[in-house]
Amino acid sequence: MKAGHSGEEMKFLLVAFLWTCWALPLARADDVAAGRAIAQDQYKGNCLACHRMPGDPSAVTLANLGPVLKDIRSRYPDRAELRRRVWDASTFNPDTIMPPYGRHRILTEQEIDAVVDYIRGL
Ligand code: HEC
Q1: Does pTM surpass 0.90?
Q2: What are the structural domain ranges in the chain?
């Protein structure tokens, strides 16, 4: 019976592990940039039609139909709850004017994740 891993296997595992450590934060940064683009795109999230985001100087708007989006991470420590709001805000308020991005497939699941990652940084 073979005991433990060979040197080659160990080297491979180490390289794979290091690559993951290096690549994961990059993936997050990409998602945040993608999320910003989706939030600001008039034909995608169009969040700036209703929300100001004072934490992001590139989010230029005078909108006041929705609450100012700031301190999101501390106000919504549970990412899943925040995501549910973006997916379908009407589950929290049946009279909301916020579009149900997931339920109406305005955004894909992946786009919603990117937007959620972006607004958690606000
Ligand atoms: C047509 C206007 C409108 C658009 C567009 C809109 N929202 Fe909203 N949003 C609202 C309103 C109004 C509320 C207040 C809560 C409610 O109505 O239930 C809200 C609430 C929220 C909340 C909770 C805020 C809080 O202070 O608790 C988040 C987070 C949010 N919106 C994110 C987004 C994101 C992200 C987008 C774009 C993908 C977006 N909204 C687009 C109108 C909008």
Answers
A1: no
A2: 7-119
